[in-house]
Amino acid sequence: MKKLDWYIAKKFLLTFFAFILLVVVIVIIFDISEKIDDFVKNHAPIKEIIFDYFLNFVPYFINMFSPLFVFISVIFFTSQLASNTEFIAMLSGGISYARILVPYLACAVLIGLVSLFLSLYVIPPANVGRVQFEVKYIHHHNKFKRKDIHYQIAPGQFVYVESYSAWNNTAYKFTLESIENNRIKSKLTADSAAWDSTTSSWRLKNWFIRDYTSGLQDHIRSGAQMDTTIALTVDDFYRNEKTVEALSQRQLNQLIETQKMRGDSNVMYAQIEKHNRFAMSFSAIILTIMGVCISSRKKRGATGWNIGIGIALAFSYILFMRFSQMFVYTGTLPAAVALWMPNFLYALIAVYLYKHAQK
């Protein structure tokens, strides 16, 4: 790298980390003021607040909004370079616009790779403690309840639960059907199925089994209580957009395969999380190109004006990223298309701005 490359890279990274530090401090202050009542009411220990919540919340927040920090940082220091006529001096010295972009892109790729590393290996285990803290002291999961649940837990095995209560981890109106060659073999019904964490099994109450035969007579069995082990655990009733954030990439892929096989509608949360980890990291490159092209021209009041435009574009990008998830929730688009659509659209905008900036 040349001296100019180091100069731009130093400006980029120092501004980026300065914005992160400033915003994180502000966010922590506002987060404490918002949740202080929950902390006090639920008697959250100071040690858990600091180590289980905020130390795990900070990397999660930084990574989630790193595209915004990258964009604003590029806008801010590039506008200063343009105001000080440094950009004009670079171009007058025979350096092409594309060559000036090299240190910008190098820093953007570095930030994107760090963000991807955090998303895949650091933040998921950190989210375990953060999510557990939120469940325990902020959002109580015992109010969680589901109805009319249909699962295919294994090839040919289908479970139906009329309702599930998180108060006592019990499924009511439990049904297990076994189907072979498009023909039902047996049907198990029970008034309730309570989860036994010591044996990792379900305790059925008032159960009734009907084995269907090829003849005219079926075999019927019944009883007051029975323990059974199936490919369904109590954790399957708590899968949502929060719990998938605590899964590693391997666990996420396994969960997607399992939920697809079961026909679980909650698979969309895992699919969104999987593609969002890669799409957010890649966005740093696109927003960096856009930021340089917007702020590299010298004009009166450029810094404030460019920062205003930059913030508007950055927030519109993040809003679009969030809005694109609605296409997955409604089943309009696959997660792979919906989550990468903002990057594709803003990449076209970046190409247009780049061609226009060279003039």
Would you spell out the secondary-structure blueprint of this structure?
Layout (H helix, E strand, L loop, with lengths): L2 H39 L4 H19 L1 H18 L2 H7 L4 H41 L7 E10 L2 E9 L4 E11 L2 E14 L4 E11 L7 E10 L20 H14 L4 H29 L6 H28 L5 H23 L2
Antiparallel strand pairs: 1-2, 2-3, 3-4, 4-5, 5-6
Helix pairs in contact: 1-2, 1-3, 1-5, 2-5, 3-7, 3-8, 5-7, 6-7, 7-8, 7-9, 8-9
Any key phrases for this structure?
359 residues, alpha+beta, six-stranded antiparallel sheet, 9 helices
Radius of gyration: 27 Å
Number of strands: 6
Measured distance between first and last alpha carbons: 26 Å
The helix/strand class is alpha+beta
- Could you describe the largest sheet, including whether it forms a barrel? 6 strands, antiparallel
Strand content bin? 15-25%
Q: Which stretches are poorly predicted, pLDDT < 50 over at least 5 residues?
A: 141-145
User: What's the pLDDT, averaged over the residues?
Assistant: 86
| Tally of contiguous helical segments | 9
N-to-C SSE series? HHHHHEEEEEEHHHH
How is the largest sheet built, in terms of strand order?
1-2-3-4-5-6
Protein architecture, described:
With 359 residues, the protein is of the alpha+beta class. Helices cover 61% and strands 18% of the residues. A 6-stranded antiparallel sheet has the order 1-2-3-4-5-6. The longest helix is centred in the first third of the chain and has 41 residues.
Gist?
The chain is of the alpha+beta class.
